[in-house]
Amino acid sequence: MELDPVIHAPTRLQIVSVLAAAEEAEFGFVRDTLGVSDSVLSKHASALETAGYVRIRKGYVGKRPRTWFSLTEQGRSAFADYVRNLQKIVSPSGLTVLPG
Amino acid sequence: MELDPVIHAPTRLQIVSVLAAAEEAEFGFVRDTLGVSDSVLSKHASALETAGYVRIRKGYVGKRPRTWFSLTEQGRSAFADYVRNLQKIVSPSGLTVLPG
DNA sequence: TCATGTACTTTCCACTAGGGAAAGTACTTT
DNA sequence: AAAGTACTTTCCCTAGTGGAAAGTACATGA
Hints:
Chains A, B: This is MarR family transcriptional regulator. Chains A, B: InterPro entries: WH-like_DNA-bd_sf, WH_DNA-bd_dom, WH_DNA-bd_sf. Chains A, B: It comes from Planotetraspora phitsanulokensis. Chains A, B: It holds the Pfam family HTH_34. Two copies of one chain form a homodimer. Chain A is an alpha+beta fold. The first copy, chain A, is built from five helices and three strands, in the order H-H-E-H-H-E-E-H. Chain A has helices at about 5-10, 10-20, 25-35, 40-50, 75-90; strands spanning about 25, 55-60, 65-70. Chain A has a three-stranded antiparallel beta sheet with strand order 1-3-2. The radius of gyration of chain A is 15 Å and the shape is elongated. Chain A binds a DNA duplex through helix 4 and strand 3.
């Protein structure tokens, strides 16, 4: 019933959730989606990379540098575990809020 | 999409989840269920009370003092909001916090 | 060519929350 | 009187967060 602290921090939970929904996402897209500053996103992305959860790919669009993030397999399974653990914690309450 | 920080802290999330599943719970039951120390539970329970989410009732069992916790209406709705917000964050991934 | 701009990254800083340990409180029991 | 129960509070210390600002590397505009 441990909630992985690397994922649990709100900003990182949002990053991981965004990445879980896509194959790859641009730095700017994630930053704007979450409404965080460059430095905050950069730092959290590095933390996730260090944990082995996120892959950071650098490339170019035209001649301008660009950064993309994606979840590693490890990141995907850590996220799935995290959500499962959340369910275990929350579900005894019998709440019936459903997605959608 | 804000995750109420009072509820988000892992230990408090667990406390609130336990209380959401019951009408009232004893101090010792919650402490043992979560596997935390007296001082940790006491501090988090106070924090939840200060936030208006938990009611702390003191009484006796025989001649021994005992403490019970319960969610206030405000606490129940804050928890429901919290879970709804979690679901919004997580759902694009196709996973769900509350299977139904 | 020099200044500015883009796209981040890193450093600095100031704060705060969270846990463990230990001491404190108010009884009750032995 | 000493010890135990059931917590509460204090003390201390560390790690985590965000914002601001400076740094890096390359590209472009005047």
